[in-house]
């Protein structure tokens, strides 16, 4: 069994809400509220949930692209939450991010060579000639050609731009890639090409992925295990096969019932959730899902269910299941 490359413990990211003439703090938005999980070396952990559930904030907080409010993140044996800003900058070469919108994340005034070279320049790696060689090699690795180095971001299609985004993340030979909705902005036909590329690269380079998406079918394709988030908290986490075949949490069951099945006999009955996702500025007490759950009880309204392993590494936060 591979060891854990990433251990996230009780991660929280709260944003203050200010108001009044003096801009006093009048509340907090709990974007990420006590999230814990691990990712093994060489594994892909999918993180899914509706927009605003805190999955992207989780990815950025654990990389310290935004500073977490509380919690501990251990990466490759190092507690990175205790590192100084300088130490963190050096550590970040091993932990890279691929963004959802490759166009917005690529500087339109720089050609691809300059964009891909930049991480090497920042970290003082290689001579100019070595850096240019690495750029050309990396373009080939992601299925582009070395002549693309002189072109500008607007000269590429969405799928090609995401390949460039992946190439940029790989320039420093990272161990972990946080892929934040990397295919959501792409056409369905292009999505599978980019997903296949990511899987090939994982095999060849031994990469570990935290793959964030709102679409359960996308995550299934690529993940070894999947975690489901709701209102800033993880509500279920299991290996992909178990999660898709035997989802336990009422929220996961509702999400999965909306995913079209290729096998009409195996099609699930659609579960329509009542109401909207409550505001993270004012989340319901107890189980945060209780305002929409078809199985709600009195206990659910007042007692927060613990996120616990109910057997075989299947974690769930719901009073219907006890460890
Ligand atoms: Fe539903 Fe209660 Fe389980 Fe929450 S704890 S998901 S409200 S049954």
From TrEMBL:
<dbReference type="InterPro" id="IPR003439">
    <property type="entry name" value="ABC_transporter-like_ATP-bd"/>
</dbReference>
<keyword id="KW-0547">Nucleotide-binding</keyword>
<keyword id="KW-0067">ATP-binding</keyword>
<comment type="similarity">
    <text>Belongs to the ABC transporter superfamily.</text>
</comment>
<dbReference type="Pfam" id="PF00005">
    <property type="entry name" value="ABC_tran"/>
</dbReference>
<dbReference type="GO" id="GO:0055085">
    <property type="term" value="P:transmembrane transport"/>
</dbReference>
<dbReference type="InterPro" id="IPR013563">
    <property type="entry name" value="Oligopep_ABC_C"/>
</dbReference>
<feature type="domain" description="ABC transporter">
    <location>
        <begin position="6"/>
        <end position="256"/>
    </location>
</feature>
<dbReference type="InterPro" id="IPR027417">
    <property type="entry name" value="P-loop_NTPase"/>
</dbReference>
<dbReference type="GO" id="GO:0005524">
    <property type="term" value="F:ATP binding"/>
</dbReference>
<keyword id="KW-0813">Transport</keyword>
<dbReference type="InterPro" id="IPR003593">
    <property type="entry name" value="AAA+_ATPase"/>
</dbReference>
<dbReference type="GO" id="GO:0015833">
    <property type="term" value="P:peptide transport"/>
</dbReference>
<dbReference type="GO" id="GO:0016887">
    <property type="term" value="F:ATP hydrolysis activity"/>
</dbReference>
<dbReference type="InterPro" id="IPR050319">
    <property type="entry name" value="ABC_transp_ATP-bind"/>
</dbReference>
<protein>
    <submittedName>
        <fullName>Dipeptide ABC transporter ATP-binding protein</fullName>
    </submittedName>
</protein>
<dbReference type="Pfam" id="PF08352">
    <property type="entry name" value="oligo_HPY"/>
</dbReference>
<dbReference type="InterPro" id="IPR017871">
    <property type="entry name" value="ABC_transporter-like_CS"/>
</dbReference>
């Amino acid at each position: 069994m591979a060891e854990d490359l990433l251990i996230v413990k009780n991660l929280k990211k709260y944003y203050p809400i200010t108001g009044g003439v003096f801009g006093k703090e009048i509340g907090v938005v709990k974007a990420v509220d006590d999230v814990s999980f691990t990712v093994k070396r060489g594994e892909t952990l999918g993180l899914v949930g509706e927009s605003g559930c805190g999955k992207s904030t989780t990815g950025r907080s654990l990389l310290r692209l935004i500073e977490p409010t509380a919690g501990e993140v251990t990466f490759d044996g190092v507690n990175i939450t205790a590192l100084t800003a300088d130490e963190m900058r050096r550590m970040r070469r091993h932990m890279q991010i691929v963004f959802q919108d490759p166009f917005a994340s690529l500087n339109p005034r720089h050609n691809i060579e300059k964009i891909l070279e930049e991480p090497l320049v920042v970290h003082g790696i290689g001579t100019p000639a070595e850096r240019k060689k690495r750029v050309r090699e990396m373009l080939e690795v992601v299925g582009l050609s070395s002549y693309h180095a002189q072109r500008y971001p607007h000269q590429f299609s969405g799928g090609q731009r995401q390949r460039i985004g992946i190439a940029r993340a790989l320039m420093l030979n990272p161990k972990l890639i946080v892929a934040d909705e990397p295919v959501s902005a792409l056409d369905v036909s292009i999505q599978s090409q980019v997903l296949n590329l990511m899987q090939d690269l994982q095999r060849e380079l031994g990469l570990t992925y935290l793959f964030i998406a709102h679409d359960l079918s996308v995550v299934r394709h690529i993940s070894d295990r999947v975690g489901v988030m709701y209102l800033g908290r993880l509500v279920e986490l299991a290996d992909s096969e178990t999660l898709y075949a035997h989802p336990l949490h009422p929220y996961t069951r509702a999400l999965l019932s909306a995913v079209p099945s290729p096998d009409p006999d195996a099609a699930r009955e659609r579960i329509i959730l009542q109401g909207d996702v409550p505001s993270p500025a004012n989340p319901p007490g107890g189980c945060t899902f209780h305002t929409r759950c078809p199985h709600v009880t009195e206990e659910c309204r007042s007692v927060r269910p613990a996120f616990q392993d109910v057997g075989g590494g299947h974690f769930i936060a719901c009073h219907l299941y006890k460890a």
